[in-house]
């Protein structure tokens, strides 16, 4: 048997390294037999693809090349077969007793096909059901190795990753651009085992204790009777809960800010939220908070834009991510950490690091970059990958450990439990997307959907039948080594520490750190949401909460609701603002931004062509908009139309360019009526709508030649910020690009049109 095992390539590849075997042998134990012969069970390996069914296995669970060709078609073989591989002669007709007779139950193919279809859906995630994902790679900078032994953070180490972005409240088919927190969950397939960083785009959470999670989610989800509203917080039960449970104030304020309306998943920050404990090679510990910083900056939609998008393109974020990756515009984030000494009280500058409703301002603890993530491949099978991926904050590697944040503790229980019900049993780690890239020898056996064929007789420890194998790792390579943290000797209590009672100082810090336009958006968001509530008492209670954040915020929302302004019930604190919390005031790369170029058959097509090329060259995406589809112009360089007037809506474009008409062309066509863009009867109403929405949403608008007539008709002044008229198309684009680097023409808010 031993001889056979030695010859097997699987066993060879998995042979336990010599060093490990000797260094980790517990003292006093007999020397084990050589590992090659002693391996009790074959470590889990992916099963070979089924013949003629080269599905996910050919593309690798993590998008890495497996050597097998990427499947271009759904079919894995020439012949249609049953699930048992039997070739089929007909898949279009049920077996019947005569052409007009009854269908026969003996039709195995019918029953197999329909039964499989009946079970195609699995339970959607109870939260974060709506998501989109991508494969990528993470490269460590080596800057964290002083404080953590996590091998994937060492300089230059490349680790495959899979990232799933999500909304929280909506069901699987809900729209992308709702006002909500976004999930930002990353699976690092490290050589030391899988590490999941299961974070959000908001650095704090609604609750401080996991036991409140069902309460906040029941309050935020649709009302149980009619199951409405879908994917919204604008309803009584949500505001009822968050106004009573004031530890939710900070997260709720972030939700009412522009952060809850990302322009793109590619333009969102990510936060690990909890404080983690990093452990170095010598066992020394440091507390840390994880941050993802997007290379493209942090940008948001405006509320009206988000609402229109929900109807026009409910897949807006999903499409944006997939298109960018397909086009080679790979989104990137730097992973960073804020670090804090691991002191017994686990506070930093008076901030309780175990309280997930608190941030540590970046001005007090700068975010230090430790690696770069690049998303470079789209999933090929949404269900197999994005739907079946299973994250868990307890998936940790050596060098990264959890703290006693009570919210995190509950999560450590919840995620494993939910995967069992969602993925149908305890073997979900065998699903391709969830398979670790490190060798697995877990001695777990059986269970629903067991796909491994284990060998050996001793999947237990201690054993003598398998020579005492498998071995246990020493402190140098093992995870789950508890740092020797002193625990207070205490009675069992159901209570929170006194520091958790501060619910308003940090919301106030956030409010004071916002620019005027960001505050304006927050006021509008609260006013909108509370206007959707029916219960007067709920609105009034929310106003009392707002009074404890800031009098201006409270007053403006109260005015909008037509209610009186309550007095604060808590003293107002005076925190120093944290400029890092604001999304404004900096400039960012414009890569991947979408520029709509509005044109018409008699426009100056030469300038359209050249500006389109220039947009491309600048790394942005030009989309030509014309009255009808097809190709404009003749000759060497025709212009292909990507959007018709009927289908173009402002939400798709970060900026607009309006092509002018050369005088000669206008003359040649007799009159301005010939131009579909601007006729004597006025501009096409669809273009007028496009332009005025773009204006209201603070987007840059440029034009040359007689394009000014369209702006004039829309009531937009040429002198306004972000409006660029005249000159050549190239010069206009230059100015527009500059404006786009700041994301929007912020001083156009509040929009008057
Ligand atoms: Fe989650 N959360 N959560 N959560 N969460 C889930 O796990 C839960 C919390 C987060 O793309 C569920 O597989 C509890 C904080 C993300 O697949 C579930 C508590 C943060 C995702 C669950 C929290 C998150 C989830 C649902 C309070 C940010 C989507 C399906 C104690 C740090 C991951 C699933 C994906 C998903 C439970 C709080 C982030 C039910 C009990 C705080 C990004 O297990």
Question: How would you sum up this structure, described in words?
Answer:
The structure is a single chain. The protein is α+β, with helices and mostly antiparallel strands and 753 residues long. Among the domains are: 131-231 and 259-434, Beta Barrel (Catalase HpII,  Chain A, domain 1), CATH 2.40.180.10; 505-581, Hemocyanin, N-terminal domain, CATH 1.20.1370.20; 594-748, Rossmann fold. Helices cover 27% and strands 15% of the residues. The protein has 21 helices and 22 strands. The strands form 5 sheets. Strands 1, 2, 3, 4, 5, 6, 7, 8, 11 and 12 form a 10-stranded antiparallel sheet that branches. A 6-stranded parallel sheet has the order 17-14-13-18-21-22, sandwiched between helices. A two-stranded antiparallel ribbon has the order 9-10. A hairpin with a 2-residue loop joins β3 and β4 (193-200). α7 (236-244) packs across α15. The longest helix has 17 residues, at 406-422. The termini are far apart. The relative contact order is 0.10. CIS-heme D hydroxychlorin gamma-spirolactone 17R, 18S (HDE) is lined by residues 125-128, 131, 164, 166, 183, 185, 198-200, 205, 210, 213, 273, 356, 389, 391, 407, 410-411, 414-415, 418-419.
């Amino acid at each position: 048997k031993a001889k056979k095992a030695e010859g097997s390539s699987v066993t060879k590849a998995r042979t336990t390294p010599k060093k490990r075997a000797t260094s980790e042998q517990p003292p006093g134990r007999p020397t084990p037999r050589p590992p090659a012969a002693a391996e009790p069970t074959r470590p889990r390996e992916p099963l070979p693809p089924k013949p003629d069914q080269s599905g996910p296995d050919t593309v690798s669970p993590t998008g890495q090349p497996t050597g097998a060709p990427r499947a271009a078609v759904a079919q894995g073989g020439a012949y249609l077969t049953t699930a048992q591989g039997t070739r089929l002669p007909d898949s279009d007709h049920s077996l019947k007793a005569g052409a007009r007779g009854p269908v026969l139950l003996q039709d195995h193919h019918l029953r197999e096909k329909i039964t499989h279809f009946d079970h195609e859906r699995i339970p959607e995630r109870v939260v974060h059901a709506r998501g989109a994902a991508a494969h990528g790679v993470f490269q460590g900078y080596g800057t964290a190795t002083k404080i953590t032994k996590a091998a994937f953070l060492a300089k230059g180490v490349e680790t495959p990753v899979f990232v799933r972005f999500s909304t929280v409240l909506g069901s699987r088919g809900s729209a992308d651009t709702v006002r909500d927190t976004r999930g930002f969950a990353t699976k690092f397939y490290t050589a030391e085992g899988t590490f999941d960083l299961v974070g959000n785009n908001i650095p704090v959470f609604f609750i401080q204790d996991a036991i409140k999670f069902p309460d906040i989610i029941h309050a935020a989800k649709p009302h149980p009777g009619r199951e409405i509203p879908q994917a919204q917080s604008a309803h009584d039960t949500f505001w009822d809960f968050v106004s009573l449970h004031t530890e939710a104030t900070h997260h709720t304020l972030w939700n009412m800010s522009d952060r809850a309306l990302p322009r793109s998943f590619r333009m969102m920050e990510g936060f690990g939220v909890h404080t983690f404990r990093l452990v170095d090679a010598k066992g020394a510990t440091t507390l840390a908070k994880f941050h993802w910083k997007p290379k493209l900056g942090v940008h948001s939609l405006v509320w009206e834009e988000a609402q229109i998008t929900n109807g026009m393109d409910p897949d807006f974020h999903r499409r944006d991510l997939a298109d960018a990756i397909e086009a080679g515009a790979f989104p990137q984030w730097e992973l960073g950490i804020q670090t804090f000494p691991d002191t017994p009280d686990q506070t930093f500058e008076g901030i309780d690091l175990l309280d997930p409703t608190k941030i540590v301002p970046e001005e007090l603890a700068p975010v230090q970059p430790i690696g770069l993530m690049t998303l470079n491949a789209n999933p090929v099978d949404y269900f197999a990958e994005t739907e079946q991926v299973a994250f868990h904050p307890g998936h940790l590697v050596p060098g990264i450990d959890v703290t006693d944040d009570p919210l995190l503790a509950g999560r450590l229980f919840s995620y494993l439990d939910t995967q069992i019900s969602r993925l149908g049993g305890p073997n979900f780690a065998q699903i391709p997307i969830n398979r670790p890239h490190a060798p697995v020898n877990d001695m777990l056996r059986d269970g629903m959907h067991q796909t491994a064929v284990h060998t050996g007789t001793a999947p237990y420890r201690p054993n003598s039948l398998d020579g005492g194998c498998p071995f246990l790792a020493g402190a140098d390579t093992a995870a789950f080594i508890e740092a020797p943290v002193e625990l207070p000797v205490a009675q069992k209590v159901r209570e929170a520490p006194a520091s958790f009672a501060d619910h308003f100082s940090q919301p106030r810090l956030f409010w004071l750190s916002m620019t005027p336009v960001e505050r304006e958006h927050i006021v509008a968001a609260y006013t909108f949401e509370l206007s959707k509530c029916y219960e007067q008492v709920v609105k009034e209670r929310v106003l009392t909460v707002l009074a404890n954040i800031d009098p201006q915020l409270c007053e403006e929302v109260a005015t909008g609701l037509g209610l009186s302004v309550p007095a604060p019930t808590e003293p107002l604190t005076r925190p120093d603002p944290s400029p890092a919390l604001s999304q404004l005031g900096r400039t960012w790369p414009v890569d991947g931004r979408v520029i709509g170029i509005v044109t018409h058959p008699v426009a100056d097509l030469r300038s359209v062509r050249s500006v389109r090329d220039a947009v491309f060259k600048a790394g942005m995406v030009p989309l030509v908009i014309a009255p009808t589809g097809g190709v404009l112009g003749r000759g060497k360089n025709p212009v292909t139309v990507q959007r018709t007037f009927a289908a173009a809506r402002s939400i798709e474009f970060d900026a607009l360019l309006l092509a002018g008409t050369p005088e000669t062309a206008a003359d040649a066509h007799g009159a301005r009526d010939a131009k579909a863009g601007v006729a004597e009867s006025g501009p096409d109403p669809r273009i007028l709508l496009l332009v005025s929405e773009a204006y209201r949403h603070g987007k840059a608008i440029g034009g040359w030649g007689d394009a000014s007539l369209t702006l004039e008709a829309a009531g937009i002044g040429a002198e306004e910020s972000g409006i660029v008229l005249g000159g050549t198309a190239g010069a206009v684009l230059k100015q527009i690009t500059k404006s786009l680097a700041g994301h929007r023409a912020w001083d156009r808010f509040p929009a008057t049109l």
